[in-house]
Amino acid sequence: MLVDSHCHLDFPELRADLAGVMSRMGDNGVTHALTISTTLETFPAVREVARSQSNLWCTAGVHPDERRDGREATLDELLAMASDEKVVGIGETGLDYYRVEGDTEWQRERFRTHIRAARRCSKPLVIHTRAAAEDTLRIMKEEGAEEVGGVMHCFTETWDVAQAAMAQGFFISFSGIVTFKNAVDLKDVAKRVPLDRMLVETDSPYLAPVPHRGKPNQPAFVKHVAEEVAKLRGIPFDEVAAATTRNFFGLFRHARAA
What we know:
Elements: E1 2-7, H1 12-15, H2 18-27, E2 30-35, H3 43-52, E3 56-60, H4 75-82, E4 87-96, H5 105-121, E5 125-130, H6 133-142, E6 150-152, H7 159-167, E7 170-174, H8 184-192, E8 198-200, H9 222-233, H10 237-251
Parallel strand pairs: 1-2, 2-3, 3-4, 4-5, 5-6, 6-7, 7-8
Helix pairs in contact: 4-5, 5-6, 9-10
């Protein structure tokens, strides 16, 4: 039993073959998945996918560097989105300075609004951070993100950052990147994060793990992420699968195993 804790099933390459995606999940022991919101515009499609299957849930939020909505989500809008029973978390949110030039204060304000929404609705945060770890951790602390906890998704930061996030009650989620040969530092983090603080994900349709690297990703491939973590730690695959599944339902407590 495995859970893909972060995927994008509303994206065209997955939505167009949702029946096949779900079938391949089952064939590979992936019993549940969380599909992630990235814009206000596409949230209805995200929610529709989650509603279509008893073993899918979704989040409510706007990606840190997404601008297509043309405006910022208000606190009340996020809370209204989060009121749906299929919404089990807030995000993905956070900070991403990698492709953004100039003033980034709008990202920080957006992040603060998402944290405040999570605290108001008592649902955990799904946090994306890239080239912004120091500010991400600082704002998490300033806004009381530890009150609701959450997950640092698609983790690629250092062990120090992982420790700081876990100290605020957050889980660390590994994606297909951990299977890449050159991800030496990340592999070391995967060896050190306690099993009871770990999740696995695909971030599909992106970041397909070895042996599918370079191809479109899908939730069924989360099995390869768990296999790599088990190999790195020298423990049985079933132990990683059981721990990460237990962690998912412990964190996203509004989700119910179907």
